[in-house]
Amino acid sequence: MRTRVLAGAAGVAALVVVGAAVLLLSPPQRIAGVSIAGAAGPPIIGGATYVTTSTTPAPTTTKAIAPATTTAAKPTTTANTAAPPPPPPANTPQPGQDASGQITFYGAADNDPPGSREIAYPSVLHGQAGGSGTFDDPTTFAAQDGRFAPGTKIYVPDVRRYFILEDSCASCGGSHIDLWTGTATDRGIIRCENSLTRNGSRPYQVNPPAGLPVSPGELYHNGRCYHG
User: How far apart are CA 117 and CA 111, in angstroms?
Assistant: First the structure.
């Protein structure tokens, strides 16, 4: 292949003819919108386009470290160390058990104060001494303080009635119980109480079931005393 060189004045472009192709030495190239001074761009052959790729380094990302999980300490459970209630005295009848003791009677005539129906525990069931002797409406009875809890029910077979503790008896001791006889204040009620009293211990049941035989009403009423 032969080559022809054309020389001339300054500013005349040099043409190099290679076969049928014409190569043009162009002025400074503009790549991706940036002019590169003083450097000759690459020759453009056959309309090919050269693209300059930016080599900007990818940003470095630092993975956040999750904070350490703190577990709250479980509260310490302290066992209930309260002392159990003291057992009842050995001679105290347990709920639902038969018991026995001296049984006496009192009424309004020999109550304290005399002629009244006052009781030690008026908030239990009746505001004052009374009751019909049924399971749902037991008659008032008294006992030594601390012997029974207020509201304790008993059943006395001698008089076929239910009673409930609503009063205290200063002269009673142990298993001795005192049963309400009635609201009368005449001498007849005193005689009735004496006739109902028996020597020695008599049976009764603590916290009895419902449905036991009952003769309801006051033990002394209208001048008449109960006789079983």
Answer: 7
User: For position 63, what pLDDT does the model report?
Assistant: 45
For β-strands 139-143 and 161-168, DSSP reports them as parallel
Distance from C-alpha of 208 to C-alpha of 77, rounded to nearest angstrom: 41
**CA nearest 51: which of 36, 35, 32?**
32
Please give the single-letter amino acid code of residue 138.
Answer: P
**What residue ranges of the chain have pLDDT lower than 50?**
1-26, 28-41, 43-67, 69-70, 72, 74-79, 90
94 CB burial (10 A radius; 0-12, 13-18, 19+): exposed
The string of DSSP letters for 31-71 reads: ETTEE-TT-PPPP--TT----PPP-PPPPP-PPPPPPPPPP
Does domain 98-225 fall under CATH 2.60.120? My reply is no
Could you tell me how far CA 136 lies from the centroid of its own chain? Answer: 33
Q: CA 202, CA 74: separation in Å to the nearest integer? A: 59
Residue 189 DSSP SS3: helix
Torsion of CA 35, 36, 42, 45, to 10 degrees: 10
Residue 228: predicted pLDDT:
80
Q: How far apart are CA 144 and CA 154, in angstroms?
A: 15
Query: Domain limits of the chain?
Result: 1-55, 98-225
pLDDT of residue 195: 97
The two three-digit tokens of residue 163, written as one number: 């009673």
Report the distance separating Cα 122 and Cα 116, nearest Å: 13
